[in-house]
Write a structure and sequence with these properties.
four-stranded antiparallel sheet, 279 residues, alpha+beta, 28% strand, 5 helices
């Protein structure tokens, strides 16, 4: 079958570039580095386009008072930052805050996560008769992670908006406990009115609530969120901690963006079929 000639076409290069080797080619360091960079940039593009940013699994937050210190604990898990890079926490991470050291601990805390690169394994880059003149370079880059506990909501981070009922309130004592219980029961009632106070497990209900959630709406509409160069938020919100009473903390994970792969219908097709003009 012959391909029909187009009425008009346009070609432009992508930002992805991969090396091409051939016999007898003298390779430079940038040739080998390009092979790694191509794979990394391809993975980044796919991850942030398919999933966006947020927590993939694990990374559950809790806080306890131990020996006068507020110890924030984060379980092992994996997340994606806004650039599409994975953040791996291989074992439980504990962050201790000691009020006796002059640290003012507010009744509301935010737990954040980000990745960083650690350059290591230095090696001599050139041969030299004088060992003192031999230059060395790092030959490995190890992925690392950082857990940070802050007292104010981050201005730029990957997460979901706070619930309107709790965004501007400072919870303390029994008032916070009652409000948390009421909010949990209200959320369950919305998901399953016949079983208020119990967790909803129906997949269709969970998906429907995610589609209508402002935190995920752009994703389900098929929009490429966080795919531009101006997206430089490096922090990922894991949870918000509220102090119920002295020494007792509760974690609210509704402020984190939870991401998992899911098969779904094309939202554009649904839009076209539901809004098509009648003939």
């Amino acid at each position: 079958m012959n391909h029909q000639s187009p009425l008009r076409s346009k070609k432009e290069p992508s930002t992805l570039v991969r090396p091409q080797y051939s016999p007898g080619l003298l390779l430079n360091d940038d040739d080998l580095t390009l092979a790694v960079d191509y794979t990394r940039e391809l993975n980044r593009m796919l991850f942030k386009s398919l999933l966006g940013c947020g927590v993939i699994c694990g990374l559950v937050v809790s806080a306890e008072l131990e020996c006068g210190k507020v110890v924030v604990k984060v379980t092992p898990g994996v997340a994606l930052d806004c650039h599409g890079d994975p953040v791996h926490v291989p074992k439980q991470a504990d962050v201790a805050i000691d009020p006796s050291c002059g640290v003012d601990v507010p009744p509301r805390l935010w737990v954040l996560l980000r990745r960083y690169d650690k350059h290591c394994a230095p090696r001599a880059a050139v041969c030299s008769q004088d060992d003192d003149d031999a230059a060395s370079v790092c030959t490995r880059i190890r992925d690392g992670f950082e857990v940070s506990v802050v007292g104010t909501a981050p201005e730029c981070a990957c997460g979901c908006p706070e619930p309107a009922s709790t965004a501007n309130n400072a919870f303390t004592g029994a008032t916070a406990a009652a409000a948390a219980a009421k909010a949990a029961n209200g959320k369950a009632a919305k998901l399953n009115p016949a079983a208020a106070g119990t967790a909803a497990t129906d997949d269709s209900v969970t998906k429907a609530s995610a589609v209508s959630d402002p935190c995920y709406r752009a994703h389900y509409k098929g929009e490429c969120s966080c795919c531009t160069d101006d997206c430089d938020c490096e922090w990922i919100v894991l949870a918000r901690l509220d102090q119920l009473k002295a020494g007792t903390w509760t974690a609210d994970h509704s402020v984190r963006r939870f991401i998992r792969p899911i098969l779904m219908a094309d939202p554009k097709v649904i839009e076209e079929t539901t809004t098509a003009p009648k003939t």
